[in-house]
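Quick illustration, no need to memorize.
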Amino acid sequence: MKKKSSILLLSALAIFIVIAVEGFFVYHIYHLETEKFDFRYRGILQKGLDYLNKKEENPGLGGVFYLMEFPAKTALEYFHDNDPDTVKFKENVLAALHKTLTEKQKVDGSLKSYLKKMKIESEFNSIFRITHLVLLGDDLDIPIYNSKKDSTWIYPDTLGIKKNQIPVNHYSFIGDHYEIGIDYYVDFDHKKAEVFRAVTASLIIAVLALLIVCLIFLLSVRNLMEERRLSQLKTDFINNMTHELKTPLSTISVATRTLENETILSDREKSREIVTVIRRQNRQLTKQINHLLEISMWERKQFSLDRRILELEPFFTGIAESFRWECQERKCSLEEKYCLVNKTAWLDEVQITVALHNLLINAIKYCTQEPLVILEVSCEDRLIISVTDNGIGISKEDQKRIFDKFYRVSTGNVHKVKGLGLGLFYVKQIVEAHGGTVEVTSRIGKGSTFTINMPAHGKNKNTVS
């Protein structure tokens, strides 16, 4: 079992590795598709700018550069007339020129018109980032900002430039009062959707593969748990059967040794009693061996049904009377109720007797008080047989499994009632062979009701396969 547990742990580890590998590949496929998108649209936008450049220099920004001369000149005059806080001064100059740049630029409009003309998705957001700015005075140049030297400034953070935005172009301009460098970024609204569409096929394959692996793992776990359960049932069955076989064998052994005593042999009455004990224990031993043979028979479906027309009331009253004699030591009360519209049914007398006997025996076997059993039989189009007891009841969990072969309801690890766990298994097999069903309703401490429902009439199939 430890080996199987180790296999399960290794399988679980393998699944986690598969998940990690698939996640790694999907992640990289996503980034590759993102790079492909960026490369494609960067080329389209740069081609658009080249097209616009043929019409005018610095398309969309030409007029803006001249508009920025005024705030630059004003800043120079302020600098010469005052002794400003250098950092604050630079921040104000940078903000003023950036505001003029973003509000007056026409690059976005020109590119969107170009993209529409080329029938390409044209909705995007843009950001202009000043990379360097110098005020040009007559006698003194004042450096305001350089992205490489002034990286600690708050300015880059306010722009909100994200990793997935596409750098399209760099602009440079030297005017009368300032020198500037500008990076132009765009972010297409449909980018994520298009990238996800490209990744969808890989993602679906990865998810399906993962689901298949997980399904196989779960099936393996379920099979292992079922194998463990069957192994335990098998062990319980062997232990129970060993006990059931040893008891009559021990009794026969003791009785045989007793018969070897000359005194006992000379007493004919005592000898007869011992022989009776041996005969009774021999029958019990034969019964248990037949149980083992029946297991194989029922599993291979190599049993036969000999259906005949039976008079129902005499048939069931006969079974009830035999049961009363068998259980008279337990002071069992058995009530019979009949509602027979049809008086006859096609049944295998022997098999139905076995099935009903098992139900009646269970009704008193699992009872802690004086047993009260109610046998109800009704027949119209279908034959319905129910056996109700006042026993200990069956839990909902056990109700799901009581018809399984070898399964026995237990308290803790101790089975309080002897048996092989085959009685209800036989009942189910016999009823299903007749084309019927058997069900149980029960409450703990309130007793149980087993109900057989089967067709009353049908073809006489002498063999069942």
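Residues 411-415, 460-465 have pLDDT under 50 and may be disordered.
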